[in-house]
Write a structure and sequence with these properties.
alpha/beta, 12 helices, globular
Length: about 325
């Protein structure tokens, strides 16, 4: 009988992963490690000793109190405990946000792309630092393997990223909304188990095939009509809405609503992973129906035309203000 150590067992992903492990051929026993914040390396060593692998799915959120132990420090302790217990395989949950959202991102992003989280987005920067620790650990242990999984947006309604990245009311004047990916929780759990079973080594993007165009995401999520504004005005408006409690997207996440960060899944597919749920189905599962979705198509068009006229007027005013400011400072 094989035993694996699992962190984050109480999360939706942890529960889905454990359910799959319970049905793995060869009788896999799961040892859960949920008390990570108060555990030192010695405690963790005793808990992981004798296991075939550590599956590290624990992640905090940006809302985690600053006084709590950081995810980076927890990951460091997990790797140190794995070393002390002579574990030679770790499966690590990272995130596709480590690539950053930039206007010049290739579409799609492959695992060879340099990681460059957007400035100010601490959560993504921490995932990148944890990946760096994973690389150090692997380098210090010849023969050891680390499976690093970088999932797209996970389609769980309670997930903070799903809420924070809902389509906003404004978009830049001269840019299309970027395409978006949504990953089924069960598909991510199957990727975790595959990485453990196959002993995969290195980084692997986890996402369905393709992506959903931005306008289609609005339709699927029941988001309201959009107003086009000059980029700087749109950015400031989104920031104002968040600080006023009217919008879900914090300033550091605005780039992830404006620029592409679509990932390629070829490498994981090549290892035998097959996504069962499409982006579109996962998107609908991740969002509750909103009032806009219940309005008739004709009424939607009438409202959208009115909003578009408002956007043009606002764009004209915004552009005029920017020009006046420029002339004033010459």
């Amino acid at each position: 009988m094989t035993t694996v150590a699992l962190t984050g067992a109480g999360t939706p992903l942890g529960r889905a992963t454990r359910a799959l492990l319970d049905h793995e051929p060869g009788a896999v026993t799961v040892r859960t490690l949920d008390e990570l914040v108060g555990s030192d390396v010695g405690d963790l060593k005793r808990q992981v000793e004798g296991t075939a692998a550590v599956i590290h799915l624990h992640t905090g959120t940006p809302a985690t109190p600053l006084a709590a132990t950081s995810d980076v420090e927890i990951a460091r302790r997990v790797f140190d405990a794995a070393s002390a217990a002579s574990i030679d395989h770790v499966v690590l949950l990272s995130d596709a946000t480590v690539y950053g959202a930039w206007a010049n991102n290739p579409v799609p992003l492959t695992e060879d792309t340099v990681l460059r989280p957007n400035p100010g987005f601490t959560w993504a920067a921490e995932r990148a630092e944890i990946e760096r620790l994973a690389g150090e650990w692997r380098g210090a242990h010849p023969g050891a393997t680390v499976s690093i999984l970088r999932p797209a947006r996970i389609a769980v309604r309670s997930d903070w990223l799903i809420t924070a990245l809902r389509p906003g009311a404004t978009v830049p004047l001269l840019a299309d909304e970027p395409a978006v990916q949504f990953l089924s929780l069960d598909d991510l759990a199957s990727a975790v188990v595959l990485a453990y079973r196959r002993g995969l080594d290195g980084a692997f993007n986890v996402a369905p095939d393709g992506a959903i165009p931005g306008d289609e995401v609005r339709s699927l999520t029941g988001a309201g009509p959009k107003v086009r504004l000059p980029e700087r005005v749109a950015d400031r408006f989104a920031t104002w809405r968040f600080r006023s409690g009217l919008g879900p997207t914090p300033p550091e996440l605005v780039p992830y609503t404006l620029y592409p960060w679509v990932v390629a899944n070829d490498r994981l597919r090549g290892a035998g992973w097959i996504p069962e749920v499409t982006n579109e189905v996962a998107c609908v599962e991740a969002h509750e129906a909103r009032p806009w979705a219940t309005i008739s198509p004709r009424r939607r068009q009438e409202i959208a035309l009115g909003v578009a006229a408002t956007g043009i007027a606002a764009a004209t005013v915004g552009a005029g203000l920017l020009v006046r400011r420029f002339l004033r400072h010459r």
